[in-house]
Amino acid sequence: MTAPVLVTRPEGRGAGLVAELNARGFEAVHSPFTEFSFETDADLRDALSDLAHGEFDWLLLTSVTTVKALRALPEWSELPAVQEFKAAAVGEATAAAAREAGLEVETIAQGSAASLIDVFPVNQQGGDGLAQRIFYPVSSAAAPQLELALRMAGYDVQRETAYRPKTIPQPRDVIDNLAAGGFSAVVATSPMIVRALSQLAIHESTKLVVIGKPSEEAAISVNLPVAAVAKDPSDRALAEAVAEVLGKDTE
Length: 251
Hints:
The structure is a single chain. Helices cover 33% and strands 21% of the residues. The chain is an alpha/beta fold. The strands form two sheets. A six-stranded mixed beta sheet has the order 3-8-7-4-5-6. Strands 2-1-9-10-11 form a five-stranded parallel beta sheet, with helices on both faces. Residues 17-239 form the Tetrapyrrole biosynthesis uroporphyrinogen III synthase domain. This is Uroporphyrinogen-III synthase. Pfam families: HEM4. Its EC number is 4.2.1.75. Belongs to the uroporphyrinogen-III synthase family.
């Protein structure tokens, strides 16, 4: 019998992946490795208000948590009924959260946040001849590559911190099972989670499956062997990657 799969997604984000794993015949244990606090500072709130009043051409959303953080701000209510800006999202889950919040999503990129670079055209200008402006609310832990690449492509990018993640100490049974081979695989869904895992003893038989290239790079940097990288950031793709590594049917 295959040992359970450890799901490390934050609280409130694990049910979908657990269900996908269960559907493929795996038992899954959800133990959140991170939690979030939403930001409320003036710069973020002012930027959201500016978005509502036509000061930005694009809203860039890279996670479901970003959507939740923005919706928690009072300035969210200022958004017009008719959306005047374009919205881009990373992954179907983020796009679905944005649509559920009432936004129209024009562009969806698969893979990591860096994949958005491929769907943005180069050197876009607004009607006034100036570079198009992008509002980029994001995790405080997000890498700078996407912002820098968009600037190099000719965009005016305003990055603001929307939420702050922090790691959560793990229960003793999770720590012991990781060390003893009590999990067949562990799914890491962010570089921060990868780094937290690197501080724990992980049995050599336990396979590490990660959500995208940034998490893979984080694993390499802390000498954790990666068994598989999901083809996109969806729960389905993560479960398929686990199934491929552990030798079960992905359908």
